[in-house]
Amino acid sequence: MAAAPASWLFPLLFLSSVFAFTSPATITIPISPSTHHYSSSDPWKILNHLASLSLSRAHHIKFPNTNVSLVKTPLFSRSYGGYSMSLSFGTPPQIVKFIMDTGSSLVWFPCTSRYLCAGCNFPNTDLTKIPKFIPKLSSSSKLVGCKNPKCAWVFGSNVRSKCQGCGPSNQNCTESCPPYIIQYGLGSTAGRLLSESLDFPNKTVADFLVGCSILSTRQPEGIAGFGRSMESLPLQLGLKKFSYCLVSRRFDNTQVSSDLILDMGSDSGDAKTPGLNYTKFVKNPVRSNSAFQEYYYVILQKIVVGDKHVKVPYNLSVPQSDGNGGTIVDSGSTFTFMEGPVFELVAKALEKQMANYTVATDVQKQTGLRPCFNISDEKSFNVPKFIFQFKGGAKMQLPLANYFAFVDMGVVCLTIVSDNAAALGGRSGGGPAIILGNFQQQNFYMEYDLDNERFGFKQQSCA
Ligand SMILES: *[C@@H]1O[C@H](CO)[C@@H](O)[C@H](O)[C@H]1NC(C)=O
Ligand SMILES: *[C@@H]1O[C@H](CO)[C@@H](O)[C@H](O)[C@H]1NC(C)=O
Ligand SMILES: *[C@@H]1O[C@H](CO)[C@@H](O)[C@H](O)[C@H]1NC(C)=O
Ligand SMILES: *[C@@H]1O[C@H](CO)[C@@H](O)[C@H](O)[C@H]1NC(C)=O
Ligand SMILES: *[C@@H]1O[C@H](CO)[C@@H](O)[C@H](O)[C@H]1NC(C)=O
Ligand SMILES: *[C@@H]1O[C@H](CO)[C@@H](O)[C@H](O)[C@H]1NC(C)=O
Ligand SMILES: *[C@@H]1O[C@H](CO)[C@@H](O)[C@H](O)[C@H]1NC(C)=O
């Protein structure tokens, strides 16, 4: 993929090299690890950074800010450890970069030449070069009105009562949709909703709802929400399914990308993609928590660690009537999160089967990951296999690089995080019990079959 753009107005020629058409009903977009933001080349510090990001992300997924007076979708990833894509908006088109996020739904970009981003001074990020969308250079930019049903997608159906002069009796209301503010643990973003055209080669989607953020903290890129709410990219485009293959994170400092495929096919029917294993998506039974409704829930029943079958307790495996429990697939989390009771069983099974290696307690302290083993004296290194087994029998056997990170000096650490009272602000047990992060999805082809409400995957090399 091309380097970060220095200007927002791109020659149209460039577009055809960014996007490729594979079939009339399919749009393919390159997707690559987001490369801003490592503050260090020290692998321990990077792991520690990714571990704490994964935990704070888990916190926001599990305990979304349910104060809906401002906005319906409070959950947001930060832009680290994520995967980036480019989209082209406006007339003439401007290209902007986004983190692809299946854990949230609004699509928003850094917007206007005055976009302010506090806490965005990352080592590899030149603030002045953050690609921004400039609405006044686009003839198709419109502010979304308060009466526009799309305003209610984000703010809920009673939003009109919040717009002055837009009561049910006034059909002439010209008020625009209120500003959105999205808050998350270590950052936030705020702006106005726009209606814009979203351009693909040979296809323009008119009146796409997109957030024009003018003020953010810690957001050097926009976010493309692929979640299950109306405002998400897949739902606005009416996709039948979408799929991606995430290249290995060891390409983080290169320009390697892989494909995100948007499928608007007319009648794919219920045919499965050859070679994929499928499990059903399930809905969270609690409809009043809008954040839980936008997650992609699946049922993970068992985690096989070598010869040990760790059964996920039923109330953690299946979303319960209180909304808690269940597993979600999240492209915006880095390391997979597991609720304490499951994580401890997995860690114990691993420690028991790797008892011949020294536990590297220092490295555990420094990375925030565990268990870590010192394998520097070993001629060969035997690791138990690691398999996620979903309802219906589909099995996802992880390659070693998806569950162990190799720290230098001959130490390896399990790349799964868990909560402790401190990390989750004293709360635990709420929200999804397991969050399947992108580190565990590397080199898998992942298909979100929305028409048939199922999740398919197979191992493959993505680069
Ligand atoms: C767009 O459509 C034209 C004419 O149908 C075709 O020649 C061209 O290859 C298409 N472009 C892409 C990127 O698919
Ligand atoms: C919810 O938002 C309103 C308006 O911003 C604020 O006054 C109130 O304190 C918030 N409540 C909580 C529990 O955060
Ligand atoms: C709405 O606009 C129409 C035409 O401009 C006008 O006749 C009518 O009085 C307006 N209604 C209200 C409630 O302002
Ligand atoms: C998983 O995929 C493999 C390869 O296509 C297939 O042989 C196997 O039957 C599938 N298993 C399930 C449970 O779908
Ligand atoms: C540990 O090492 C001993 C002696 O080499 C060997 O017999 C045993 O199988 C090893 N255990 C594991 C769990 O690898
Ligand atoms: C790993 O073990 C080797 C040999 O016992 C030792 O020299 C090295 O310092 C250890 N590494 C760490 C990170 O503890
Ligand atoms: C699941 O059930 C166990 C025992 O029945 C209970 O201790 C635990 O709190 C429950 N967890 C959740 C998240 O409901």
From TrEMBL:
<dbReference type="InterPro" id="IPR001461">
    <property type="entry name" value="Aspartic_peptidase_A1"/>
</dbReference>
<feature type="signal peptide">
    <location>
        <begin position="1"/>
        <end position="20"/>
    </location>
</feature>
<feature type="domain" description="4Fe-4S ferredoxin-type">
    <location>
        <begin position="153"/>
        <end position="187"/>
    </location>
</feature>
<keyword id="KW-0378">Hydrolase</keyword>
<dbReference type="InterPro" id="IPR032799">
    <property type="entry name" value="TAXi_C"/>
</dbReference>
<feature type="active site">
    <location>
        <position position="330"/>
    </location>
</feature>
<protein>
    <recommendedName>
        <fullName>Peptidase A1 domain-containing protein</fullName>
    </recommendedName>
</protein>
<dbReference type="GO" id="GO:0005576">
    <property type="term" value="C:extracellular region"/>
</dbReference>
<dbReference type="Pfam" id="PF14541">
    <property type="entry name" value="TAXi_C"/>
</dbReference>
<dbReference type="Pfam" id="PF14543">
    <property type="entry name" value="TAXi_N"/>
</dbReference>
<feature type="active site">
    <location>
        <position position="101"/>
    </location>
</feature>
<dbReference type="InterPro" id="IPR034161">
    <property type="entry name" value="Pepsin-like_plant"/>
</dbReference>
<feature type="domain" description="Peptidase A1">
    <location>
        <begin position="83"/>
        <end position="458"/>
    </location>
</feature>
<dbReference type="GO" id="GO:0006508">
    <property type="term" value="P:proteolysis"/>
</dbReference>
<dbReference type="InterPro" id="IPR051708">
    <property type="entry name" value="Plant_Aspart_Prot_A1"/>
</dbReference>
<dbReference type="InterPro" id="IPR032861">
    <property type="entry name" value="TAXi_N"/>
</dbReference>
<dbReference type="InterPro" id="IPR017896">
    <property type="entry name" value="4Fe4S_Fe-S-bd"/>
</dbReference>
<keyword id="KW-0325">Glycoprotein</keyword>
<keyword id="KW-0732">Signal</keyword>
<dbReference type="InterPro" id="IPR021109">
    <property type="entry name" value="Peptidase_aspartic_dom_sf"/>
</dbReference>
<dbReference type="InterPro" id="IPR033121">
    <property type="entry name" value="PEPTIDASE_A1"/>
</dbReference>
<comment type="similarity">
    <text>Belongs to the peptidase A1 family.</text>
</comment>
<keyword id="KW-0064">Aspartyl protease</keyword>
<dbReference type="GO" id="GO:0004190">
    <property type="term" value="F:aspartic-type endopeptidase activity"/>
</dbReference>
<keyword id="KW-0645">Protease</keyword>
